[in-house]
Amino acid sequence: MDEQSRKLLLDTYKLTEENHTMLKKLRRAQKNAHTFKAIYWVIIIGASYYAYLQTKPYLEQAKQFYTAAQVQLEGIKNITNILPGKK
């Protein structure tokens, strides 16, 4: 092997090693980004579910209040139907 071919082969080998190192770093960064994105969404969904559980009693209380108000309004409507003078 002549000197020029050997030099070219060594340069190619060094470039290949550099590329391999960069590709490993890129792949590691990609895996880290994917992992942190998954953790991010687990936290978002978990926090939303926790907030729902914390507000659920208040929502049920508001629903009961609304239902009771509807019953009261229906009772008032029925009373106006019973009153004399209504034709």
Give the arrangement of secondary structure elements.
Elements lengths: L2 H80 L5
Instruction: Specify the overall morphology.
Output: rod-shaped
Q: Round the Cα radius of gyration to an integer and report it.
A: 37 Å
**Major sheet details:** none
Distance between the termini: 117 Å
Explain how this protein is built.
- The chain is mostly helical and 87 residues long.
- Helices cover 92% and strands 0% of the residues.
- The chain contains one helix and no strands.
- It has one helix at residues 3-82.
- The longest helix is centred in the middle third of the chain and has 80 residues, at 3-82.
- The protein is rod-shaped, with a radius of gyration of 37 Å.
Can you summarize this structure?
With 87 residues, the chain is an all-alpha fold.
Quick tags:
87 residues, mainly alpha, 92% helix, 1 helix, single chain
